[in-house]
Amino acid sequence: MSSTINPIRREQPHGDIRALDEVERASVLRELDAILNSSIFLPSKRSQQFLSYVVRHRIDGNLDRLKERTIGVDLFHRPVGYATGDDPVVRVQAGEVRRRLEQYYQSVPNPSAVRIELHVGSYSPEFKWAQPVPNLPQSSLLHAAPDDRETPQGLGNGRESSHLASPSPTETKTAAGKHRRLVWVLSAAGVVVLAGFALLWSGVFHAKAPQTVLQKFWSPAMSSPEPVLICLAKPSVYLPSIGLYQRHSKTPEEFLGQYERLSQKPDLQPGDKLVWSDMVEYPDYGLAAGDVYTAIQVSALLGQIGKKSHVRIGGNYSFQDLRNSPAVVIGAFNNRWTMQMTANLHFAFVEEGAQSVIREEGPSGRRWSSGTEVNGKAIEDYAVVTRLLNSKTGQFVLVVAGIRSYGTQAAGEFVSTPEYLQKALQTAPADWEGKNVQIVLHTTVIDGLSGPPQVIATYVW
User: Fold this and answer.
1) Where are the beta strands (DSSP E) in 138-209?
2) Which DSSP state fits 20?
3) Which of 158, 173, 257, 369 pairs with 423 at a CA distance of 20 to 30 A?
């Protein structure tokens, strides 16, 4: 049993700083163009701008431009000297670019001459060059003369000697037999040598590589023959009725369309009274944005590593379903399975009065709650990733949940990003992969978007 606390760390601007020659520069620019025009990057102009910015400044040697505040000023039009700790827009976009780069290189069928990487902790891209395949050793085989006679060679100057007597037919036959045996032996030896090199070469390429942290983290789900269930909650949603909109609108025709009723507010005053019939349940609505983002990220990851998954929403799955398959349960206070499965764990979601918090059991009794401004706008959130090898269902369960939707989204990014998992588990016990794990995460919220997840506590048992 172990518990560790990790300080929040910020990304640093410096990576590989080796200068490129003209040939390398041209190769990098060709690769950049291919990436920017791919289906992975075309939908996101901001990701295209970010990657182009850092790659071009890197190959031009402008390392002073690859700093968080400088990028914020140049790309995102932040004021000079803005507080990067309060505005993580650069870190958020860097994380998005890393995800898209990973998806791009997993989608291309053939490796490129150069691979562009942007590692966590750096805004300076690194270029990984393809290694040439070593040549297999060649073995020259001896070939017999067109006929059975050996040509006698002269002595000293290498020319034929005219005064040597021709061998007798018996000697010629004996010599030819020896020659053929020698050719056969040497040829067989060459075949054996080539076969040995082939086996050795095959072994190099087919040797089982060590598992990555991502593979170890997800290995219990991969070991099951059943598809992974991705489980989202769908709470009941009530919206004002058409009659309420019409009674409290200056123009009665204003809210006749459903889009107008969903996107605009009725003209209600603080003293107006409502009755229950003024509210109507909408069964088709209710998914939290962070839950949906997480489900998409997890589903994409499982597809990339060759594991089937099924998405289940609201009442479309039962405890029996969870008993039959490994599952990823998404969301906290809106998902009853999360609340049940984590209720007695080291880190649990609890409600203390009107406040929803993550509570640590034990002497320290730490608490984490989401932060808001005076107007109720979120500025930070917390989440817990819970990895249970043998949960109450008897199956592997991964709970990805934040106090609010922002924390859930950050946790979804965490479990699907190798760099985040590597950093979080490098201080865990060596045998963590065979144990249960809980990780508490923090994220900053800017303009309704969660920033990169940052580990603040772990617990392994």
Assistant:
1) none
2) P
3) 369
